[in-house]
Design goal:
The protein is α+β, with helices and mostly antiparallel strands and about 200 residues long. The chain is about 30% helix and about 35% strand. The chain contains five helices and eleven strands; from the N terminus they run βββαββαβαββαββαβ. Helix 2 packs across helix 3. The longest helix has 19 residues.
């Protein structure tokens, strides 16, 4: 199971000019559709006088949530080329918005496709692509007497202790790569003193 995905580290911007039109491109890391809508509203408010606010996004580790929007441009001439750039760079949890200021010369559908594609690529190039790792947490508890048995098994590079509470017994929250979770759970289930809480 693959537990990594490519995304953008932080927001970045690009610019493309074509026959008097300006295409300002913005890429953002986003976690969900609410974040997408928030960024769209912010850009539409900032660039209220623009001709178009075309966008595309992909969400999820399997890149299975996506949308492209032409915002009044000819069908499939803006959103799809933007989406194509996200896909060709295997990026997920990303939103690209291209804000167009019309320059007076019509570009034709082919010209629009190329302009939106180039603008989206400029935003991606301006950003930093990173590989993120999916993690999963597990919470366990055990009595103090079992600490000598449990702790050596948990102090491994693959597992990260993210929280410890020793007020009443021992309660530890561990985190590991998603694809190592079955191994961690198996190790913990093999220790009679350990109770898996989540």
């Amino acid at each position: 199971m693959n537990d990594t995905f490519n995304t953008i580290k932080s927001a970045a911007t690009g610019l493309h000019r074509e026959k008097g039109s300006r295409f300002l491109s913005f890429i953002y890391p986003v976690e969900d559709e609410a974040a997408v809508q928030e960024m769209l509203l912010r850009l539409k408010k900032t660039y209220y006088d623009a001709s178009h606010h075309c966008y595309a996004y992909i969400l999820g580790k399997h890149m299975d949530v996506y949308r492209a929007n032409d915002d009044g441009e000819p069908h499939h001439s803006a959103g799809d080329p933007i989406l194509g750039q996200l896909r060709s760079n295997a990026l997920t949890n990303c939103l690209i918005v291209v804000v167009r200021y019309f320059g007076g010369t019509k570009l034709g559908k082919g010209g629009l496709v190329q302009a939106y594609k180039t603008a989206a690529a400029a935003a991606i190039s301006a950003g930093e692509i990173i590989t993120s790792t999916l993690t999963k947490a597990i919470v366990i508890s055990f009595e103090y007497e079992a600490m000598g048995t449990v702790m050596p098994l948990l102090n491994r590079d693959e597992f990260k202790i993210v929280n410890q509470d020793f007020a009443e017994g021992c309660r530890i929250t561990l985190e590991c790569r998603e694809n190592l979770y079955p191994d961690l759970k198996s190790i913990l289930e093999g220790i009679p003193a350990v109770v898996i809480l989540t």
